[in-house]
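call fold target=Enoyl-CoA hydratase/isomerase family protein
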Amino acid sequence: MTCATDPILVADGDGIRSVVLNRAGKANALSADMLDSLRQAVESAPRDGAALVVLRSASPTLFCAGGDIDEFAQGPVALARQGAGLCRLMEALARCPLPVLAEARGKAAGAGVILLAMTDLVVAADDLALSCPEIAFNMYPVMVQVALETKIGAARARQLCLSGQALDAAAARDLGLVTDIVAAGDFASLAGARVAYYAARREALAIARRARLRMEPPEAMARRIEALEPLMHENFNRPGVQDTVRDYLAGLRLKRAG
């Protein structure tokens, strides 16, 4: 279905659609094309006969560092496309009739937190670190807040977005953002076993998903995204933000060169 070098890998087997972030060289930073591919993989899963969707990372050390800031720093067109792609992916995850699971270890920031927050189950390594770092760039992550509020209260979601506070796996589990924690040292095997456990109970997960869709109608999520999308673009389009992002990228390049 996909090529091994694609930044998003999609594979189907035994009723499970596996969707893998495969851009480790860029910390799985989500480009507009990757966001579109993720959305398409989620939307087409029911039509292709899948019963579950599982999000994974091909990297052994991280889940997703967030949006591709190199891309959105290129100018307003790239920025608008990436922002729109994120919103459409969030809507697809909210509307998906199938249970969505995730395996995650290492860093998950910004849009990476959105992906985990909008799943039904997260099997995490004990080295998982969730963060909302946008405030450091003088931005407020309105879409991260929307996603977090699907699992935690509004006040706590705002606190995380405003403070930039990092959560370890145990704190994320206590909040309800993580379902299971397994040892990072044998993550692939242990996480795979937990996902297999849940996959064997896919009928129960399907009922849980249908209950969630009835109690949290996706139309309400779509309206919230539509209402906040202009604020997201305003956030990124302010001149000072662009300068801060460019300075950050320049610092990263100097650090790598050194």
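return ok
The chain has a mean pLDDT of 92. The first helix runs from residue 32 to 44.
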